[in-house]
Amino acid sequence: MVTVYDRTPGISRRELFRRGAGAGALLVVSGTAVLSPRHAWGLETTALKPETMATLIQMARDVYPHDQVPDRFYAIAVKSHDETAARDAAHKELIENGVADLDRRSGAGGYRGLGWEEERVAVLRQIEETPFFQAVRGGLVVGLYNQKEVWPIFGYEGESYSKGGYIARGFDDIEWL
After folding, report:
1. CA contacts within 13 A on the Cβ side of 21
2. Which residue of 7, 100, 124, 125 is surrounded by the most CB atoms within 10 Å?
3. Beta carbons of 90 and 161 less than 8 angstroms apart
4. Which InterPro entries match (predicted)?
């Protein structure tokens, strides 16, 4: 199979960084990867399309919104879908078709093209009973919140047993009363 690349000049790298500096989350799809030039991380895909992964990252942020959590943690949380899709054709079909349906329901610019979180959430409410949505949401519970690097953002110190238990570590602090 021969891949034909569009040779019309796009924006320069300098312009990309200039535009991205003031924006919130700017994800760039390039080849087989999703990149965040502003925050210097990337996620390579093996089975799913990089556009699909970029949509899953945005969807993850909309399902479990935490402004203080960087996109890279959401990317790590949805990476498992790419890994599972590499081993399971049915899962790959579920995710690719689910994202295609999400984009179709979102209109001309697709899901990521919707400018407001409220618009994206309205589309997600339309599909919340589907196996696709349930698979993504279910994977996020573990994939996002089991990352130890995220815990300090939420003020969670981790398990307490090895440190003497919660009773000796502030369980009875009631400064909020």
Report:
1. 6
2. 124
3. no
4. TAT_signal
Domains of the chain: which residue ranges? Answer: 46-165
99's tokens:
């994202």
Angle, in degrees to the nearest 10, between helices 131-145 and 50-63: 70
Residue whose structure tokens are 């796009």: 10
Residue indicated by tokens 């049915």: 90
pLDDT in tens, the chain (177 residues): 555 545 555 555 555 444 444 344 567 676 666 766 666 667 788 889 989 999 999 999 999 999 999 999 999 999 999 999 999 999 999 999 999 999 999 999 999 999 899 999 999 999 999 999 999 999 999 999 999 999 999 888 787 778 777 776 666 666 655
32-58: string of b/e by CB count within 10 Å (b at 16+)? eebbbbbeeebbebebbbbbbbbbbbb
pTM: 0.74
Instruction: Judge whether 53 and 75 are in contact, CB under 8 Å.
Output: yes
